[in-house]
Amino acid sequence: MTLKPLEIYKLLPKKNCKECGDPTCLTFAMKLSGGKAKPEACPYLDENAKTILGASTRPPVRKIRIGVGERAITIGEELVQFRHEKSFFHEPGIFIAVNDTMTAEAIQERVIFVRDGILTRVGTDLRLSGIGIRSLAGSPEPFARAVGAVESVADLPEVLMAGDPAVMEAGLFVCGNYRPLIHAASPSQYREMCRLAKKYGCPLALKADTLDSLAELSGHCTAEGVENLVLDLSSPSLHAMLNASTAVRQHAISRTTPALGYPVCIDTSRGGHADASLITGVTKFGSVLVCDDLPEASRKAVLVLRQNIYTDPQKPIQITPGLYRVGTPGRDAPVLLTVNFSLTFFTLQGYLEASRVPCFMLIVDTEGLSVLTAVASGKLHEALVRDAIAKYGLAGEVSHRTLIIPGYAAPLSGRIEEAIGWKVLVGPRDAADIAEFLEKEWKT
User: Fold this and answer.
1) Are residues 79 and 50 in the same domain?
2) Which of 18, 129, 193, 245 is the most exposed place for a label (fewest CB within 10 A)?
3) CA nearest 193: which of 172, 219, 216?
4) pLDDT for 251-264, tens place per residue?
5) 27 Cβ partners below 8 Å, 6+ apart?
């Protein structure tokens, strides 16, 4: 079980020596409890305390990395059962499957789609994660050719899916240095799969009939020296898959079964409910989701769902502050001030584009707060506006000295005007009214 801050504090030396980087042992205990510090930072812990704190404060779900380079993904390292308790940190990888009975051209076409496909939403580029490669022919040569076809066009994380160790080794010979996920070891051949995982330094997925046998299998694999494990919970039954993934997360978070403290893999092709399995995997603790080719609508839906679930609910999505252009504004174009809360930015930008009035958007840093909240909390103030105008060179972009501020920032209009020496116009509260406002009020 995770220890509470006061329980951790009782195990500390209580010297308040500050050598850990914190002012007091209690502060250090609170950081340990939240997973923001490591026991090793305290030089005075005895071995017993290190053992207890190490087991209690390390993430209950092991962190695993699949792939290399900028498209590599990290999974696991989760701390909570429910998103509202804290946040989910590492979004699941969504892998599109090919198989070794497809032609090289068909494989490459699908891989290029995964490599280049981008959905941009609220300023974030959403992508599929990688490629799953299935062995259907059951022979090393076709599998190696399929892996080679993938490698020829993309540097993406891969899941190699072959139950025969000889077939798996043929695929690893082609791409083993790129840390694919080996899928999957079973009770009958785990020693051979563990040998391959150690040889190539790859994470290893495990497959067994029950959670008890899966926990036993993970124990065997760690005894073989393989610690980067993933648990396959694929099932023809959506109900069974949901129950198993929930149970695994509960066992991991409570630390009652450390042998189940690993990320979860789900092959959504099992059974006749691929889309439902994919959605369930995103929302209920899946970390590696392998699916056959997704229709465009399903791809967009699952990428947006994943973004929503794995966005920190306590941290607003923010836009980089700066000077943005809508259309091709000239030196007499209006300048509209707003905050860097993404929803505010994209809403205003959309209405400005619809108005067909070229203009500038001056985005100031309110730490992702909306206009109303930023005004109420003091995050939006005249000094911030003055500094932003200077920082982004606004005076050199326009010939006038007029700034339009949001309607909810009206209480600041006088102070902003005095601080910047510009004329300040108070715009509408609702961005939907901005076109009418510009038509009536904007004059250079």
Assistant:
1) no
2) 18
3) 172
4) 998 888 989 999 99
5) none
